[in-house]
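Minutes, project check-in
Item: structure for the 546-residue chain
Input as provided by the requester:
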Amino acid sequence: GVDAEVRASSLAGPIAFEASGTLASGGDVAVRGEASADGPIDAAIELDGFEAAPLASYVDGIGRLAGRVDARARVARASADAPRSSDATLDARALDLAMGDLSAKGPVSAKATLARDGERWSGPFSVDLGDAALDYGGGVVRKAAGTRATLDGTLSTDESGALRADYELRVRNAQAKGALRTGTRTRVEMSAPAFDVAGWEEVVPALAELSPTGSLALEGLVLQTSPLALTGSFALSKLALAQVEPDAPLVLDGRVDAKGTSLVPRDLFATVGAARLAVEGGLQDLFGARVLAVRLATPQPVESNAVFSMVDALRDAVFGALDLDLSLDLPLAGAAAAAPATDRLRGDVRFRIGGDEAGGRLRGVSLLRTVFDRFGALGYAALAALPAKRGKSIEDYYSETFQVARATFHVANGEARTQDFEVVHDEYTTRLRGGLRLADLALDMRGELVIGDRLDAALSGAAQGQARVIPLARVGGTALAPTVSVKPEDVAAFAARYVVQADSKLGRKIDDALGSEAGDLLRGVLSGAGRGSRSRPAEAPANEPQ
């Protein structure tokens, strides 16, 4: 029901009115005030416990609306010619709102004081969302109840209804100022002094894997619509991403400029431990396909372990001075985004490790040992036949260290392929061609191991050695646990050169036991097998990745 009362001292005087009642949808309403025929008016309305759900049908885009609302509003005008002023406050209890990608749950309070002059409105406003939980994009941005979130400022409209708002936004420990302009092209401006990003994974959950620390500043950001474009700068200072490498976080310093539909690094450097890399590239097609273009280069050689340790499988495995030039693209949107990142990467990587006095090291890997182990008994015979006078065993050549390693890889379809991977050791060189699977570092390559003249002399017992090539039919396994396959004819050629040749220990023993003619015949058979046979290579171990 509604109770109402109207009073007037005369027909020409002001009319006082008052009404109160209970709404069918729930809540109490009260209206009171005073109005005159010549224009002055002063009226107030109060709503207590008003059910918000019926309002959903009046606002486009609302998918869900529930909750109780307390509201206070006052409209006043001193005369028919004077501007009209309005004050309004709104307190929503347990609001439950879903509108497009945005949802809000919990208490919300808002206040505005507006003055109307003709078709123009202007005045201050404030909104407090601190006690409400907000979600945008299904968890892309999330604010828990109790996290500071306020919006204050002034707004105004012109005769066309276009809105202008100058605002101050506070979220968590960030404080931004800016402006909103609507019309033919909506424009949002925002700037924020540097703030600490530690803990912001509570607001942007995707940051949780990176545990960021350091500071970020927003400098003159402008977002415009029709078409969408973003300009301005992000300033990064000691912005550390700890989970990339917990012991030596990736630290970013510099700027990222927004240039319409792309984000472009400017004087941006990434530091990992003692390694400092120049970062170029950026994020292309910002409002469309979103392609992350990563361009990394070493202004001067850096320690490779700091860089390669960002890949878990290579942590503390690669050492030496690194010269790197990397250019990779990673699509972030569209159908391709569903695939693993290793399958989406496209581009080229060029590197060189070592090349200085210290050289480099690949932990636990000696391809020479792998090849000789693959020869089985013949390999062991070659080791046993090493001339003692050299004072050096083959074990001395099985070092993990190398002089220099270099390659250029083309990355596509989950694989890095090369035609020029070369590792130069003191006594031998490995040259490989083929692919490296990014997901698990599995190898599918072929190439050759070139024995240097000094190692050749040590193995053969000759006074003067020469370079010898052992073809590698396949190099499999993984980067840190390679396996090899060698064709039988190449095994025979190895035996002819290093195991049963006449001037080797084993060769002399064969001649002593069988006679020199029989020894020569055996060497001829092995040499012929090496020249003429084209058998399939010996298979790699059964557990080798294919």
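Outcome recorded: The helical segments are 304-308, 341-344, 367-374, 377-384, 453-460, 488-498, 505-514, 516-532.
No further action items on this chain.
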